[in-house]
Amino acid sequence: MADVYLDNAATTYPKPESVFRAMDRFAREVGGNPGRSGHHRALESGREVLRSREALSLLFRVDDPSRIVFTKNATEALNLVIRGRLLEGGHAVITSLEHNSVWRPLEALSRRGNVSYTILRCSPDGGLDPAELRAAINSETRLVACTHASNVTGTLLPLSEIAEVAAERGVPLLVDAAQTAGRVEIYPQEMGIAYLAFTGHKELFGPQGTGGLYIAPGWEFEPLTYGGTGSRSESSLQPDFLPDRYESGTLNAHGLAGLRAGVEYILETGVAKIREHERELTERLLEGLARIPGVIIYGPTEWERRVGIISFNLGDYTSSELASILDERYGVCVRSGLHCSPLAHRTLGTLKRGTVRASLSRMNTEEEVEYFLHALAEVSRQKP
Length: 384
Ligand SMILES: Cc1ncc(COP(=O)(O)O)c(C=O)c1O
Prior knowledge:
It is a single chain. This protein has helices at residues 17-30, 40-59, 74-85, 100-112, 130-136, 159-168, 188-191, 253-269, 271-291, 319-330, 342-348, 366-381, and strands at 4-5, 68-71, 90-95, 115-120, 141-147, 173-176, 195-199, 211-215, 295-298, 309-314, 332-333, 335-337, 355-359. By secondary structure, the protein is α/β, with parallel strands linked by helices. The protein folds into 2 domains: 4-15 and 270-381, Aspartate Aminotransferase, domain 1 (Alpha-Beta Complex); 17-269, Aspartate Aminotransferase, domain 2 (3-Layer(aba) Sandwich), CATH 3.40.640. The structure holds pyridoxal-5'-phosphate. Pyridoxal-5'-phosphate binds at residues 73-75, 99, 101, 147, 151, 176, 178-179, 199, 211.
């Protein structure tokens, strides 16, 4: 049976060979704790972490690599900002396409009392009216948070318009780039983004357990975790400089070695080329899906407004039934259900049923897309 992986929005697979090699090298040949001891293994480990920070700062065009702090994933990066900015209470604005990693921390804070938030309603295809954002911001607003692309429909949100309104009102913008870092150009310094949260294991091709946050100058906040940083050890106070302020405890240096290789792969290939490849596959997939009787596709059709994440349903199949059939009979990995984003499903009107999600990466081929379409067409001819 074939083995076709179309669940890259959950995590990319496979990774470039260089990622496997970098992690293997780190584990076998380096092995020291970054920033802790003074011996050669610790120093090389520290250099490896620095190279990863530098590769990311090149990708995001950030002048100062120390403004990129490492976390274990995008969720941790998002929590860091949300909880740090709202430590003393206040109001936040989010969109109706957010992932639970934005919604849940805000909801948890709001249940404790002095935090409130507004959810801006997007249209089912991801449209958002900047005037509504302007109206939602009040004197208590301490944060605007929005996803760059929906993990359900692949819809790109109008970031520059959102950034413009947030800047006009003097409120920092937090962008959740979990689904776009590595596949869409995003430059926080140039785009007026105060915080850019990213994950390492999706389109940056790093391993799971890696991620991070860019923090713009002037927008620092209280950290979530305090402890050993390998710096200013004589003091009981957390260092106030970046990245140490936010990086207590031993980093995932094995993972960051892999993340560096993943980011270098993207830099060598070029984000524009990656996006072009994804465009070809996505258009083929969308056209093919539209020809299969009984298929409903969610999200925009124009490439400029989306990435290669495609949600759909077929006939009377539940999304989990269909995903199981594709896996068990055809060896195709897709995801079903709510994809940790009930807000997006409420926006689409699919909260009860969920969707089947096929998500592409640079590693997918035209043959795999054709195979998937062929499998789905065969299923559509059978009864649920
Ligand atoms: C839009 C979005 N935000 C945040 C996350 C959380 O990423 P992670 O699981 O790496 O923390 C995801 C993961 O699917 C996502 O799609």
